[in-house]
Amino acid sequence: MDIYRIDGSKTIRIADMATAPPEQHADKETNKTQIKAHIKRMSALQEKLYAENDYTLLLIFQAMDAAGKDGMIRHVTTGLNPQGTQVFSFKQPSREELDHDFLWRAHKAAPERGRVGIFNRSYYEDVLVVRVHNMIDARQIPKALINEQIWDDRLADIKNYEAYMRRNGQITLKFFLNVSKEEQKRRFLARIDNPSKNWKFSAADLREREYWDDYMFCYEQAINKTSTPDIPWYVIPADNKWYARNMVSRIIVETMAGLGLQYPVLPEEEQAKLSAYKEHLLNE
């Protein structure tokens, strides 16, 4: 699993990162079985996270179109209690959001203590699609403040923001679902031929595909400049959906397990009262 973990200790090239799993780990049924085990354990750990109310867990999913973000979120989080889970999908910003700094809408959606938050896309869109299409002059910042350092500045802001949230108890897991251009094409064709899914396809998908190399450059920049040992990126091979779901669910579970989560322990004086409470109920 560590081969997918990017902690900032070295510069990565996405072109060198795997999009397909090792052949011996590609079996669908094996991956599905392991996912079920991870989900069961995740459910138990979430109960402790919620009860302890110390940490927050934020899962960020970024990817090219058709990489499987929606399916990933649907399958990996099936065991989570909705009462302790918050999901946000970041689309084109509203006028109100454009009138604030680029981190405002994401910070406003940050999960509460004890909760699991899920971002389907995130503030990273402001150094991805905004950068690819050079939309910076139409968003959040006066033109007089725009200069050649704007993207490095934004990446530094993100890195500092994530460190700030970490110091306040937020554990952030960032996943880039690394799908190949060939697999994206195959999925687009399958989507077009499927009446239950072709409503999701549009000419914009084809236009964005033409910027593939630009997106890869921006993802590389974002991953390399915001990865740290405490807040790494995970570049997950996504050509095989079940393997990707298995790896993501495993990373989530192992991260939660590493927090040492425990149910709250009643003070001694309250524990001493439990026998009396029990006796009262039995004697009703």
Summarize the structure.
With 284 residues, the chain is an alpha/beta fold. The protein has eleven helices and six strands.
Biggest beta-sheet profile: 6 strands, mixed
* Overall average residue pLDDT: 94
Distance between the termini: 55 Å
Q: What class would the helix/strand composition place it in?
A: alpha/beta
Low-confidence stretches: none
DSSP strand content? 5-15%
Rg, alpha carbons: 21 Å
Strands, total number = 6
| Contiguous helical run count | 11
| Percent range of helical residues | 40-55%
Shape designation: globular
* SSE pattern: EHEHEHHEHHEHHHEHH
Largest sheet, order of strands side by side? 1-6-5-2-4-3
Key terms for this structure?
globular; alpha/beta; 284 residues; 6-stranded mixed sheet; 11 helices; 46% helix
How would you sum up this structure, described in words?
With 284 residues, the protein is an alpha/beta fold. The protein is built from 11 helices and 6 strands. Strands 1-6-5-2-4-3 form a 6-stranded mixed beta sheet, sandwiched between helices. Helix 1 runs parallel beside helix 10 (241-257) and helix 2 packs across helix 10 (241-257). The longest helix has 25 residues, at 28-52.
Summarize the SSE layout with pairings.
Elements: E1 5-6, H1 28-52, E2 56-63, H2 69-76, E3 85-89, H3 95-98, H4 104-108, E4 116-120, H5 129-132, H6 150-167, E5 170-178, H7 181-193, H8 203-209, H9 212-226, E6 233-237, H10 241-257, H11 268-282
Parallel strand pairs: 2-4, 2-5, 3-4, 5-6
Antiparallel strand pairs: 1-6
